[in-house]
Amino acid sequence: MAEDDIDEPPVQETNLDDAQDSQINRMAGCARMGKWMVMATLAIFLSVSLYRCATGSPGILGTPPINLKTKATMKDVQVALGHYRTEYGAFPTLVPGSSKDVQTRSSGDLIVALLGEDEKTNPRLIKFLAVPVAKNGKKGLLTVGTERQLTDAWGERYHILLDADLDNHIANPEAKPGNVSTKIPPTIAASVIIYSSGPDRDPNTWEDNICSWR
Predict the structure, then answer these.
(1) Measuring CA to CA, how many Å separate 19 from each of 26, 27, 31?
(2) Which superkingdom is the protein from (predicted)?
């Protein structure tokens, strides 16, 4: 048989257009998959962050804004009380020379005195504290009956402890009897400390309480 009579296998030609289209389709598919993964991750991140901000829980974004606002209000009250004591020689509603520290709430004569609304508790009517009006009973000043109240982000009055004996130490409300933990000292070096009962509105559950000293 002559060599010229041997059939050679056909050479399959590569269609460059088809190859390019296939590559483009694969790239487009990967891009779409990556886009959906990014969107899903972002949605989860935002959902968790919004939940933590709404509840006051610490999360990915750090300290929630609601906690920062609460701490800022507590700081304003601390400063106002300090200025009041400098002006009048004692804290509002306390008799000068008191020998025992006092725990009270952000309401009644104490708040009225800081607002400068009553000559009995603030003879010079000095406005030591400026706070917004509460919305839906939360995050601000409101009147319940005849009583003025300053509420936190969850509608609760703040807890305020005053160093009435002026020794610059207040018993730590977080420390329980018999506690020997170095993380929770028995006293706090301060003339005023304030805390909010937090999202659960229970002052006895310290995990979510927002405190001026920590």
Answers:
(1) 11, 12, 18
(2) Bacteria
Q: 174 near 185, Cβ under 8 Å?
A: no
43-63 residue pLDDT tens: 655 554 444 544 445 544 456
The residue type found at 46 is L
| Pair 115, 132: CB distance under 8 Å | no
- Residue 65 phi, psi (nearest 5): -55, -35
Q: Where do we find the tokens 């400063």?
A: 79
The reported pTM is 0.69
Nearest to 110 by CA among 138, 134, 85, 86: 85
Task: Give whole-number Cα distances, 21 to 13, 27, 32, 34, 49, in Å.
Answer: 16, 10, 16, 20, 42
